[in-house]
Backbone:
């Protein structure tokens, strides 16, 4: 091991970020605004305020301030589980026999099991500050719902979670964690909303989708006094909160006197990837440094690598504003054999714009290869990774093996977003040799694209 | 919050312990030796070497060396998940309104989910060094089995785990984590051993016990070329390895300029409690400092508070040496409604002697009260604790509330041994209001005592 570089680097509390970084301020081409689905005009703060908390609306629309203060209450909560460690993967490097230096930023050391808590506590804080009774949301794999339940318990807010039915049934323990934190959890689609009843009537026996759960959560928030809707990914405000990951990483690298060449993150809606790369991207946009950024997505849900860059509905029920993003169409649902998260049909507008501007690369990987990397990583580095995070591990290993061939001593940073402790059904399939891959055909994708709105 | 005391204190890698501390060296009354069940004479190193690795036998019998070097390979592995944080529970203090300062040493931030990895990696290392093919063990709640699987994966050792049948069935995901790390997991009692077949014949339909799983694991180790048996608690060697918890805690307190008044740990076989208190107990034994030590055990398995201090069998099949310990009798099995670990019939000989010498206190708590504390802690401090750890939380909260009454500003340290992510069946019972308590009657205990050997 390098004498001066420990396995784990923690910032001191005094070194933790006091402001989030808003990458949009440094983007020449700003991400396209959300559109009102009725008027096709940009959503106003007033219109957004019906759905979201007021301060979060301000953050959503703010494309000019590079730094936004993190309120002290949130910084105090961050201190309970942050800073997260920047880990040097010495054992993995040795096992691969690579000259590359591999680092990962590990966000899994909290009960939500992922980075989602970074934004959940912020959104709960602003809801509390606004005097609300509670919030509604959707959850797929369950990480976001768990994180929000924890945040709401901390601030004494009611928390209503619509959980994609297939996850609700396959992950009873995720559900139970949320209940332990006092949240109510409803399988979606449900008969508690108009949109849920409509979807159930049209598709009896459906196991649900994220887009549908979003529609239900939004409907309940808008129709309930003192409630707002909160979302764990895709939105600009979420990327803003998640910038704490990248800011800590950057500060830790500076402390070590190191600099990554390649930065890799898994990408579903973009919350982790956007948060991890933001401050580094800012340096690149300002011409201060250069990095290769790689978004890794599942081959079964390839919004960046095979999607269209277009305005689309954010939800199945079409109750949400339209967003311009790389999308597979709001009707797209990954095949049933897809394990874990990263199943949203679209990608964060900010990341979509950066990708369209060729500031970031994207690759897609098949899930059996992802779980091979997950198992290898678990046995060597000791941490059982979340399936989502393992997409980034897969590509980090592949890049390190390329360095082995070329002899290049590149420095690789990837985001280890979380742990897989609630994903053992998927691991069991892999352990039993029963996991399969599925890559949608062009015809499959054409069906999704056919549903894109004419904007 | 105190200006100079962060939420979390991490030692630098250079400050991590390089030696384990062996509390027996400072004990005036040494723990009683293990006895050969046939001759009733103290077990020799040679006899123990049939079951255990040679260097571990040396450690087991060593009552004179206060410090034993931690081999570099183990220290490297420790760096992957240690140092563990010493956490100041500011939010809990505030919620309780207590003048007490509450600290906890959190051992749950690794995939095994508990402190068990501290000894697992040590035992796997010595097995590897001895050129063995593999090791066998038992696991109850599953934390030890998981930890050993991880350690064996790291050193490329085969790992055979006998898992108490009721846990095997109720915790399929624990089993799957072990499989992901390459271990084979067999529900106990099984038909793969003589002792298993005998127990199955005598008690058809039994859901197993730790004592029975130990017997099976020992039988397989002794009967297989290149295998030894390893155990995750009770033994002196385990307390030695676990002293890393207490040594880090002591160093962190010294760094902060603080000193605990009360040190609290849950106690099943004694691995966590013994490890946490050892260095502090050493100071007390040497007259350098004074502390109150409190062992917390389940009311349903009260070996210290209601057991007898006597020689007893360590396992149901009576294939192991006899140990002098506080015990409920090797036939004692906690009632079926007992959730989680802390279900072993006896207590570490070292801790038993310290308790008998009145150097340590013990209390028992009922499990509904334990889960109330667990839920409260989860919501306030953000970490979902293991049921075992929650015994210590319960008493830490009770002591902090006493301080609130008296106005005393005591400093409380407790061991948060792990997380409850694989214990959601128990949490679900609690959330649904279906958890009950059970305190064995004197008659129940008399049955266990009747099986004590005449030594």
Residues:
């Amino acid at each position: 091991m390098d004498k001066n570089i420990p396995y784990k680097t923690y910032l001191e509390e005094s070194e933790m970020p006091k402001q989030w970084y808003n990458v949009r301020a440094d983007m020449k081409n700003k991400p396209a605004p959300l559109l009102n689905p009725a008027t096709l005009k940009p959503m106003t703060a007033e219109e957004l305020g019906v759905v979201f908390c007021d301060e979060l609306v301000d953050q959503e629309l703010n494309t000019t301030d590079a730094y936004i203060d993190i309120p002290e209450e949130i910084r105090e909560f961050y201190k309970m589980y942050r800073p997260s460690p920047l880990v040097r993967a010495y054992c993995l490097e040795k096992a691969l026999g690579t000259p590359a230096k591999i680092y990962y930023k590990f966000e899994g050391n909290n009960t939500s099991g992922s980075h989602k808590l970074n934004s959940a506590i912020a959104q709960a804080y602003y809801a509390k500050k606004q005097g609300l009774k509670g919030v509604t949301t959707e959850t797929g794999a369950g990480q976001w719902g768990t994180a929000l339940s924890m945040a709401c318990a901390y601030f004494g807010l009611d928390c209503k979670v619509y959980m994609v039915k297939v996850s609700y049934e396959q992950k009873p323990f995720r559900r139970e964690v949320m209940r332990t934190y006092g949240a109510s959890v409803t399988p979606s689609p449900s008969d508690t909303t108009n949109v849920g009843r409509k979807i159930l009537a049209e598709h009896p026996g459906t196991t649900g989708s994220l887009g549908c759960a979003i529609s239900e959560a939004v409907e309940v928030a808008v129709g309930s006094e003192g409630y707002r809707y909160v979302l764990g990914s895709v939105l600009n405000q979420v990327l803003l909160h998640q910038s704490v990951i990248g800011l800590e990483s950057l500060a830790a690298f500076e402390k070590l006197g190191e600099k990554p060449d390649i930065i890799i993150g898994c990408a579903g809606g973009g919350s982790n990837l956007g948060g991890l790369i933001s401050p580094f991207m800012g340096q690149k946009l300002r011409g201060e440094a250069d990095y290769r950024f790689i978004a890794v997505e599942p081959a079964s849900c390839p919004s960046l690598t095979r999607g269209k860059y277009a305005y689309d509905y954010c939800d199945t029920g079409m109750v949400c504003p339209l967003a311009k993003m790389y999308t597979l169409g709001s009707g797209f649902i990954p095949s049933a054999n897809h394990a874990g998260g990263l199943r949203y049909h679209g990608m964060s507008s900010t990341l979509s714009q950066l990708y369209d501007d060729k500031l970031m690369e994207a690759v897609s990987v098949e899930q059996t290869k992802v779980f091979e990397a997950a198992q290898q990583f678990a046995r060597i580095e000791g941490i059982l990774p979340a399936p989502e995070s393992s997409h980034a591990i897969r590509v980090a290993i592949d890049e390190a093996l390329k360095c082995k061939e070329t002899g290049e001593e590149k420095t690789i940073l990837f985001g280890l977003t979380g742990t897989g402790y609630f994903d053992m059904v998927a691991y069991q399939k892999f352990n039993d040799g029963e996991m399969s891959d599925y890559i949608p055909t062009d015809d499959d994708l054409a069906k999704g694209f056919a549903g894109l709105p004419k904007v």
Notes: The radius of gyration of chain B is 20 Å. Residues 236-256 of chain B form the longest helix (21 residues). The interface with chain A takes residues 1, 6-8, 10, 12-13, 76-77, 79-81, 91, 109-111, 113, 150, 153-154, 172-173, 176-177, 179-182, 375, 378-384, 419, 421-422, 424-425, 427-428, 431 of chain B (CB under 8 Å). Chain B has two domains: 8-15+83-113+243-449, 21-69+116-229.
